[in-house]
Amino acid sequence: MQKKPIFHNFAFILDVINFATALSWFCAYLALFLKLKREKNVVGLSLQTILMLVVAECNHVLITAVLSSHYHVELGLDFYLCDCSTALLSAVTFAYIYFNFYETYESNRDTFGLNVTNFIICWISRAGRSNHFIQKKSNKYYPTSQKIFWLTVYILNFFLGSIIFFLRKSSSPPIISFWESYMDSLLSLALLPQIFMFYNKKPRKVSSLLAHFVAFILLARVFMLFYWILYPLFKLSIVPGRRLHIFSESLNVTFLMHFMYYFIRSKLNGENDIFLPL
């Protein structure tokens, strides 16, 4: 008989962490809606990031539902209160912004995908080519990259998702396993366009509410990181790919640590806005 985990009788703590994750998501979008109400614009906000969060969260709900049906496992209340609510909140937020504030969207600064695309084109062209050829190629593909740059992260994520897929051990059907791997890695990259946008201007000043949006998203990822780390101490069941969940959540936290340092420092200094280094 398999030995029970040391904190088996306190498994409710994992549920508390799960609810704390959902609460952090709610606080993040609350900060965003307060920004919209006060400032009447989405200046400084990356719609690439918001869209990636919507895609990742909605697909997470679909994956959970499919796996539940496949393994004949009943979904608990936490699925509807946490997973479904955050996915719905993400989708509603994106739609609300798109239909009401899109004219204030700084598309000329939300260019993470565009810059990555141009970097890749130049890097590929540079091998054994002259600077004139590189410039010619960049100019040739620039109009195209402007039109499809928002797809860049999704395309690059295919490779990261594939690595996770081949490393994870899952009893799920391959297509579902890859789907889950792809969305896990996409969520890890979701905040990169927003962070890039913060640094893509001078002076690098971030409004308090927008900074709180990112901070609460990070807090949600920290809760999920703790959830997966602590899982074996509370639950007897084994979750396939748990270590890779830890890896993807760790990426989330790592990408945002630099920003969070200046966020915390600004708050400790009593500053309203967040000032990032030049």
From TrEMBL:
Belongs to the ERD2 family. It comes from Cryptosporidium parvum (strain Iowa II). The chain crosses the membrane at residues 12-33, 45-67, 79-99, 111-128, 148-167, 211-234, 246-264. It is found in: Endoplasmic reticulum membrane. It is a multi-pass membrane protein. GO terms for molecular function: ER retention sequence binding. The lineage of its organism: Eukaryota, Sar, Alveolata, Apicomplexa, Conoidasida. This is ER lumen protein retaining receptor. One of its GO terms (biological process) is vesicle-mediated transport. Keywords: Endoplasmic reticulum, ER-Golgi transport, Membrane, Protein transport, Receptor, Transmembrane, Transmembrane helix, Transport. GO terms for cellular component: endoplasmic reticulum membrane.
